[in-house]
Amino acid sequence: MTANRWARTLAATAAILGAFTMGAAAADIDFKGKTINVIVPYTEGGGSDLYARLFVPYLRKHLPGNPVVVIRNMPGGGSIMGSNHFHTSAKPDGLTIVATSSSTLVAQLLAGKKREFDVLKWRHFIVSPQGTVAYAITKTGVTGKDPVADIQTLRKQKLKYGSKQPDAGELRVILAFELLDMKVDVVFGLARGEVRQAMMRGEIELNHDTAETYLANGAKMEKDGEVVPLFTLGYPKGAEIVRDPTFPKLNTAGELYEKLNGKPPSGPLYDAYKSFVNLGVAASKGFALPPGTPDEIRDVYVAAMKKTIEDPDFKKSAGDEVGDVPQLFGKDADFAIKQAVDLSPETNKWLLDFLASRYGFKPS
Questions:
Q1: What are the domain boundaries of the chain?
Q2: How confident is the model at residue 322, as a pLDDT?
Q3: Helix-strand-coil percent breakdown of the chain, rounded to 5?
Q4: Which of 15, 75, 94, 293 has its Cα between 20 and 30 A from that of 187?
Q5: 230, 300, 333, 324: which is closest to 59 by C-alpha?
Q6: In angstroms, rounded to a whole number, what is the distance separating the alpha carbons of residues 34 and 42?
């Protein structure tokens, strides 16, 4: 299915969005004859777009009344343009939802005056955790036999890693490299596919993938002896970071820090790192309704998503994109988002100082 550009269709869609009766009981909510707009603040074909398209047929199937569900791609500013539009224009009637990702949450922290939205006011109804694997090309001397020795080998070198921009989702991996005291020059302006290509040409030594992408692509490179996985970012469990359940044999960056330094990590760098693990792992992707949406409408979406996750056809089509990690719904999704973006003043100051001194970045 190919989505038309939002700008060509938004006005036409608005004409058919009927008014929705607020405060109705969830059992009385019926979207029959309605059109649900899914704002995807990214380009077609990207990870968040593919994630959204996985769910569209099942929202049609499991929302009451079997509404038409249409994706509106609205890229720009690392999700800021589409997220701003959603926050300021979407009505709390259940007829507009937004796809979220780690980049949206980074923008919440770092976009400055460009950001008009507030994810803490959105009514999140599902968050899909996704693991993150960092890996290096074997020409650096890593072997995969001893993870501590591999990091020590990498510490002796100047390495390159690719990222879109300083305030993108890759910051979670940059902070992990910093935690492990690795000397990493970040090459900005590269999309994930471009980073992988540069890595295969030997121009970049470090990369990361989400769990599903690593299983689809990185695992083959590992089998062929081209790369070695170094660590995962882990998985948040309460206040702790535990091993990623998809890669239980891989150390987390925090575990490697402790093995290298003889003590567990602490301090503002580690606090920022933990926040970004929540941001880039626990709250990696998801969907939300606009501010002010009644609980009854969110409950309907939560129920539809729970039916979707258990739908046998969805399980076949979703594959590794959603994975076996439990999905978070409703209030649990809200909690994951809050953990990701609600930094303490001390941690927030450290992060802004780090970005300014290291990359010359300041929120505009």
A1: 6-129+283-341, 132-280
A2: 63
A3: 50, 20, 35
A4: 75
A5: 300
A6: 24
Residue type, 205: E
Provide CATH code, domain 132-280: 3.40.190.10
Q: Which CATH class is domain 6-129+283-341?
A: alpha beta
CA 54 – CA 60 distance, rounded (Å): 12
DSSP-based three-state secondary structure for 130: coil
Contact 85, 39 (CB under 8 A): yes
* Closest by CA position to 161, among listed 209, 104, 224: 209
On the question of a common fold for 6-129+283-341 and 132-280, the answer reads yes
CA-based nearest residue to 310, from 62, 118, 119: 62
Other CB atoms within 10 Å distance of the CB of residue 111: 21
CA distances from 260 to 21, 148, 149, 183, 242 (A): 59, 7, 9, 16, 18
The phi and psi torsions of 73 (rounded to 5 degrees) equal -70, 130
Spatial separation of the C-alpha atoms in residues 146 and 144, rounded to whole Å: 6
Token pair in block for residue 72: 């509106």
Over the stretch 175-230, which tens digit does the pLDDT of each residue have? 999 999 999 999 999 887 888 889 889 899 999 988 878 888 889 999 999 999 99
Distance CA 283, CA 327 (A): 10
